[in-house]
Design goal:
The chain has 408 residues and is an alpha/beta fold. It is built from 16 helices and 15 strands. It has helices spanning 25-37, 51-64, 81-89, 101-104, 106-115, 126-143, 156-167, 189-199, 202-215, 248-258, 277-294, 297-304, 315-319, 348-363, 375-378, 380-389; strands spanning 15-20, 44-48, 73-75, 91-96, 118-121, 146-148, 175-184, 223-225, 232-234, 239-243, 265-274, 322-331, 334-342, 371-372, 393-401. The strands form 2 sheets. Strands 7, 8, 9, 10, 11, 12, 13 and 15 form an 8-stranded mixed sheet that branches. It has a 7-stranded parallel sheet with strand order 3-2-1-4-5-6-14, with helices on both faces. Strand 9 (232-234) and strand 10 form a beta hairpin. Helix 1 crosses helix 14 (348-363). The longest helix is centred in the first third of the chain and has 18 residues, at 126-143. The radius of gyration is 21 Å and the shape is globular. 50% of the residues are buried.
Length: 408
């Protein structure tokens, strides 16, 4: 650490929240959000490996809140396990924006699992999440740490959106939910690098998923699943629905497996929602091309270097960005249409989701849980209400009797 760590007394930790990777693009947006919205008595700090960058960040934060003039700056490096252990031991909750997580994330998960420190990140990398479950879930359960991955656009709107939808449906009956995602947004260099890294690790991702399936106990006496499905014209949204093989449906079914409120037989399908068929065809072709190129190291390096890490869309462009996720849920003779919506999904809203997640972990009364858990399981209603108060939309658009002609 680059600053003296003082014991906080009752908690034995110097800080309530530490943000690691605060000088990156999303990291700085998260720090700005905390500067404005953290409670006055919140003891928080920013951490990274470059002291000069942290000092410049602090200068920019002072313009947001003069109290940030004394914001602690902590040194830690993803390649230095000792510094990560010291960082984890200093705080109650640790958030990280440093990716690709498969490359830089394991040390911090390990440190938090051993220290009993709650952990939150922005990963959308299924292989990383599965590997961290296999390596550290049991350790976190023993220490009492909550390891909560995917606390940004991956996968808060989808996980909490399904949680919100399920609450509108009858209890104790089979439930079916479909999610349809639309957005207008750009990505940062860090997000692009994570995506290309994940696309280039198909065999490793499948191997990690298989190992997890063999070791993770399933729900007793209940069934949960997330079939990929196929592309189709959705009568319910009036758009083309393209199956999305992202981390989001995996997160949803893990919430469903842990929470009996999702019923005895739960199915979720996840789609991109596209108005025009040519756009849908073009999107499929672009993903296919990116996947093919990502299989070759030289092509991966070329693609990654196209966008500098730490870069991202400017404030004006982000102000024009938006997202909606529409859900259609059915069960027990009832059919509900719900929607989660917000502004710029990848950056402004992701920073908000991560910041509110760590504030929720640090200060709200939550269900007792530990180990690797989802946002719905760890925080559920408390985080949903925080996000509503912060401006994200969670609404019931319509309620009908089930017709029996739902797209299956």
């Amino acid at each position: 650490m680059s600053e003296t760590v003082r014991d906080s007394g009752s908690t034995g930790r110097a800080y309530d929240i530490v943000l690691f990777g605060a000088t990156g693009f999303v990291g700085e947006l998260t720090a700005r959000y905390l500067a404005v919205h953290a409670p006055a008595d919140c003891r928080w700090a920013v951490a990274g490996r470059d002291r000069a960058k942290l000092e410049k960040l602090r200068e920019r934060l002072v313009a947001v809140d003069p109290a940030c003039a004394t914001l602690p700056l902590l040194h830690a490096d993803a390649s230095d396990p000792a510094s990560l252990r010291e960082l984890a031991a200093s705080t109650r909750v640790l958030a990280t924006t440093v990716g690709p997580y498969i490359r830089y994330g394991e040390g911090l998960v390990a440190a938090c699992a051993d220290a009993g420190t709650d952990y939150a990140d922005l990963t959308g990398e299924p292989e990383f999440v599965d590997r961290m479950y296999l390596g550290y879930d049991a350790r976190a359960r023993r220490s009492g740490a909550r390891i909560v991955h995917a606390c940004g656009f991956d996968s808060v709107p989808h996980d909490l959106g399904v949680y919100f939808t399920v609450k509108q449906l009858p209890e104790g009956v089979p439930l079916r939910v479909d999610g349809f995602v639309r957005s207008r947004a750009m990505f940062s260099g860090g997000t692009f690098a994570s995506a290309i890294t994940a696309l280039g690790r198909g065999p490793q991702m499948l191997r990690a998923a298989k190992e997890r399936r063999l070791s993770e106990p399933g729900p007793v006496g209940r069934r949960v699943r997330a079939p990929l499905g196929g592309a189709r014209r959705s009568r319910e949204t009036g758009t083309w629905a393209l199956p999305l093989a992202t981390i989001d449906p995996r997160v949803v079914v893990r919430s469903a497996a842990a929470l009996e409120r999702y019923g005895p037989d739960f199915r979720y399908r996840h789609y991109a929602s596209v108005k025009w068929l040519p756009v849908a065809v073009g999107g499929v072709a672009a993903v296919g091309a990116a996947f093919a190129l990502a299989q070759f190291p030289a092509a991966r390096a070329w693609l990654t270097n196209r966008y500098a890490a730490g870069s991202g869309p400017d404030e004006e462009r982000r102000a024009r960005s938006w997202f909606t996720v529409r859900f259609v849920g059915e069960g027990g003779g009832r059919r509900v249409f719900t929607e989660v919506s917000g502004g710029d999904p990848g950056y402004d809203e992701t920073a908000k989701m991560l910041a509110e997640s760590v504030l929720c972990l640090a200060f709200d009364e939550l269900p007792p849980t530990s180990g690797q858990v989802t946002t719905a399981v760890a925080m559920g209603e408390a985080l949903l209400e925080r996000l509503r108060a912060a401006g994200l939309g969670f609404r019931v658009a319509d309620v009908r009797e089930a017709t029996g002609v739902t797209d299956r």
